[in-house]
Write a structure and sequence with these properties.
The chain has about 375 residues and is of the alpha+beta class. The protein has helices spanning about 25-35, 65-85, 135-145, 150-155, 185-195, 220-225, 245-250, 315-330, 345-355, and strands at about 1-10, 40-45, 50-55, 110-115, 120-130, 160-170, 175-180, 200-205, 210-215, 235-240, 260, 270, 275, 290-300, 300, 305. It has one domain (about 1-355). The strands form three sheets. Strands 5, 6, 7, 8, 9, 10, 13, 14, 15 and 16 form a ten-stranded mixed sheet that branches. Strands 2-3-1-4 form a four-stranded antiparallel sheet, with helices on one face. The protein is globular and about 75 Å long.
């Protein structure tokens, strides 16, 4: 059976600042999705203050029907947020009217269309207080590095490697992408993916079968709105097992708690902390968090999710992330603790620097 999985998220309001959506908002979204006959199945959860929708259907990618369902769900939740006086109500809805596709309107979107295998496991990953480049290192390690993916050595179906499609997200007129293959292109891929703010993994395909393994949301909100409206808080879908990495290989890199952009005001550097589903954010509007659920889908029906970061192992990792977060926050605004000038998300410092530059004087040597 050919189906499409659509993973769409948005921040449309949260309690007491950037923490989590209200219970009433979540219930409203679930009610809305339950009334949609075009959907085969759906799941709803939140990661920090982002509401995440996972929907299965047979409408294909970029379906205006499915995207309208998601848009209307977020609008309904935003209206609840406004009624409750919550912070940032409707924040990620950058347009007042639906135009056929939520891409470019604020919400993050990752969709994969495929013919179901006899068993079809997949992982849905969602992050808060960071940008799409936060997934560069975990995806590189999970699909290209045998230190995390032993299947690259042990599974014949992965011996040919994978094809990475990488997007230059600083190029806003049209999508600027490049396709590079592993293992021969690993160094070139690494050269690009080291720059998390510019080059972002968009998708990954098996070179053995041509089947798509991964789709990542690549929206950068400041490129859409022209000003800071919130961090991008990306999502991705990853098909696992068989011709693809195992579930454990996909999530293994998150034990590193690698440093990413985000944290307070989207303008700092912090470790990515793997958290349980429906976790909020707290310390310094962070730290950047990521949740992951594993599902199976059959005839479009989605099983209950397995919360991959709920296992006791990840408590130790969370402690590690906490220590890394405290350590870098002790450095305050200095150096690597805050993003470079070109990436600062708030306009106040831009105006301040323009004013200061005007006061500089040239002095003779």
């Amino acid at each position: 059976m050919k189906i499409t999985l659509s993973l769409i998220k948005a921040d449309v309001g949260s309690i007491g600042g950037h923490t989590k959506p209200s219970k009433e908002m979540m219930e409203k979204v679930k009610q809305h999705l339950s009334e949609q006959e075009v959907l085969i199945d759906y799941k709803v959860w939140h990661t920090g203050d982002d509401i995440v929708l996972l929907m299965s259907h047979q409408q294909g990618k970029d379906s205006d029907k499915v995207h309208k369902i998601a848009y209307d769900a977020f609008v309904a939740a935003a209206n609840i947020a406004k009624e409750q006086g919550l912070y940032g109500a409707g924040q990620d809805l950058l347009s007042d009217s639906f135009s056929g596709n939520v891409k470019g309107m604020g919400p993050g979107v990752a969709e994969i269309e495929f013919e179901e295998r006899a068993n079809e496991p997949f992982v849905a990953v969602s992050a808060d207080k960071t940008d799409p480049g936060a997934y560069n290192l975990p995806l590189y390690l999970a699909f290209a590095d045998p230190m995390h993916n032993s299947g690259l050595m042990l599974a014949p179906s992965m011996a040919k490697g994978f094809r990475f499609t990488i997007m230059d997200v600083s190029h806003t007129d049209k999508d600027r992408v490049i396709e590079l293959d592993t293992p021969e292109g690993m160094y070139d891929i690494a050269a690009l993916l080291r720059d998390n703010q510019r080059f972002v993994v968009e998708s990954i395909h098996s070179r053995e079968t041509g089947e798509q393994a991964v789709e990542v949301s690549t929206t950068r909100l400041h490129n859409i709105a022209g000003k800071y409206t919130g961090k991008d808080d990306p999502v991705y879908l990853a098909r696992v097992q068989g011709d693809f990495p195992a579930t454990g290989e996909v999530i293994s890199p998150y034990a590193i708690c690698h440093y990413v952009a985000g944290f307070m005001r989207g303008s700092h550097t912090g470790p990515m902390m793997p958290v349980k589903v429906n976790s909020e954010v707290s310390f310094f509007d962070g730290p950047p968090i990521v949740s992951a659920q594993a599902f199976c889908v059959k005839n479009g029906k989605i099983t209950d999710g397995c919360d991959l970061f709920a296992h006791p192992f990840w408590d130790t990792v969370r402690q590690k992330a906490s220590e890394k977060a405290i350590a870098i926050r002790e450095q305050g605004f200095s150096g690597a603790a805050m993003l470079p000038y070109s990436e600062l998300e708030y306009g106040g410092i831009v105006k301040k620097m323009e004013k200061l530059h005007g006061k500089f004087k040239l002095r003779e040597k």
